[in-house]
Amino acid sequence: MFLGFHWLRELYHDAYDSGYEWFRGMSRNPKWLLMRQLARFGVVRSLFRHFQTCEVPQFSGESVFSHAASDIVQSVVKDGLYLGLNLPSEMLQDIIAYAKQYPCYGDRKPEYGFHSAQRLEAERWYDRQFVTASYVNTIETCPAIAQLSRDPLILSIAARYLGTSPVLISSNLWWSFVTDASLQARRKAAQLFHYDLDDYRFIKFFFYLTDVDGLTGAHACMQGTHRRKKLGHELNRKRFKDSEIIDAYGIENLVTIRGNAGFGFVEDTLCFHKGMPPIRHDRLMLQLEFATRDYHMQHDRVDPRSLFVYAAHLRDRPLNRSNF
User: Fold this and answer.
1) Which end of the chain is flanked by fewer CB atoms within 10 Å, N or C?
2) Looking at the whole model, is its pTM more than 0.85?
3) Helix/strand/coil (H, E, C) string of the chain?
4) 238 found inside a domain
């Protein structure tokens, strides 16, 4: 009986996620929705590469990195992953200072703002627990992130991998918190295996801003699965259990990414991947994403007039929805 209920609950959540994607696409951007249905298939992505413009621009200027773009691109083409594109210390400290100064927003909701140091107070005041919290308008408000998004090496890697001029489609800076959240909350927080479909071709740059190990929110990637997936996994884009993905693609291909603050990696998140729930302390991460086209569905831009931020002086005030 219990196993049957669990199976029905998973089926319900999968159907809800799929229905919400269709609603979001039909109401906001049908071309994005069409891409999401087609790009899951390798043959469609191959056709897209065949017909796309192949003029790869050159980028001048001094990079904050000393790596060779060709080595990184080769690794991502082969494995879907490159490890070790690390932030300079000064840039790392600038972004950490920004995260302390600016508010973040629980569950990506503009009405649940708070400063990270006041998270527990804010959760009590909002009467809800947050698994994640994201910053907004980061390109406009954080000079270090803006500089990183224009870095010549990052742009060169993206251009060579995409085969065309790269378009920045998202900048995401977010906390993953130590919580006892439900399975459904972890689904929404991308803490179960899945793969992304943000364009027919896209690439992401990740940077840890806190020390990360197996107990503090490590990112896990099943390398090589950006090139090959079982047909059932192309047809069904649900969240998957660890055992389903490990049994299908082999534990030898599973990479658990650990690193100190500043550690960076490049990934084609068509690979199966997930964020592991942090257990020992919270994790702060930055992600920059480039693609061939911006469907305006990934960005972190929010009208500042819609934002609400908890402050300590509100703690004794009753919550009034008119404040939002």
Assistant:
1) N
2) yes
3) CHHHHHHHHHHHHHHHHHHHHHHHHHHHCHHHHHHHHHCCCHHHHHHHHHHCCCCCCCCCCCCCCCCCHHHHHHHHHHHCEEECCCCCHHHHHHHHHHHHHCCEEECCCCCCEECHHHHHHHHHHHCCCCCEEECCCHHHHCHHHHHHHCCHHHHHHHHHHHCCCCEEEEEEEEEECCCCCCHHHHHHCCCCEECCCCCCCEEEEEEECCCECCCCCCEEEECCCCCCCCHHHHHCCCCECHHHHHHHHCHHHEEEECECCCCEEEECCCCEEEECCCCCCCEEEEEEEEECCCCCCCCCCCCHHHCCECCHHHCCCCCCHHHC
4) yes
